[in-house]
Write a structure and sequence with these properties.
By secondary structure, the protein is an alpha/beta fold. The protein is built from four helices and six strands; from the N terminus they run αβαβαβββαβ.
């Protein structure tokens, strides 16, 4: 067998479609674009246009709001914290604050603060100082014998079906 004997399987390679090369090609004159009009020209951008009718994206109601000045907290799970303690990245003898977590590489950057989440297991006794923490995370750290100091206390959950009347306490 020589290199010049090699060939593709039948139908594996297809010839390029040469548009606008005469009526005999089957793609001459209009080049497969139909007849005249905006869509037969190049540079057409009428994706959301509905022929003058009010478009669907304008007929539907607006929903939601993104608060532009919201506090962006870096999330830290108990599991990731425990992994860092087991790997020896953190000194559990001293109080672990946000600067220590960043310098140890547990979190990349602290943004507006670090929020401790209750995902994962916590077995080490550690004293933490973070911006915010969930009530489950605080309970898990205290169960392991540690303590959590937060600068923003966790929110109290209120049931959705309870209606509060303004002025009543």
């Amino acid at each position: 067998m020589n290199i010049n004997d090699l060939s593709d399987n039948p139908g594996a390679r297809r010839a390029r479609k040469r548009v606008g090369r005469g009526p005999g090609s089957g793609l001459g004159k209009t080049g497969g674009r139909g007849v005249k009009g905006q869509k037969s020209r190049s540079g057409v951008a009428i994706k959301g246009f509905e022929g003058g009718q009010m478009p669907i994206y304008m007929r539907l109601p607006k929903r939601g709001f993104k608060k532009p000045n919201r506090v962006k907290l870096q999330e830290l799970t108990l599991g990731r914290l425990q992994e860092a303690i087991d790997a020896g990245k953190l000194d559990v003898g001293a109080a672990v604050n946000e600067a220590a977590l960043v310098s140890a590489g547990v979190v990349r950057r602290k943004l507006d603060g670090i929020r401790l989440l209750a995902s994962g297991e916590m077995t080490s006794k550690v004293s933490l100082e973070v911006t915010s923490a969930t009530s489950g995370a605080i309970a898990a750290v205290e169960k392991a014998g540690g303590s959590v100091t937060v600068s923003v206390p966790p929110k109290e959950k209120t049931p959705r079906n309870v209606k509060t009347v303004p002025g009543e306490a």
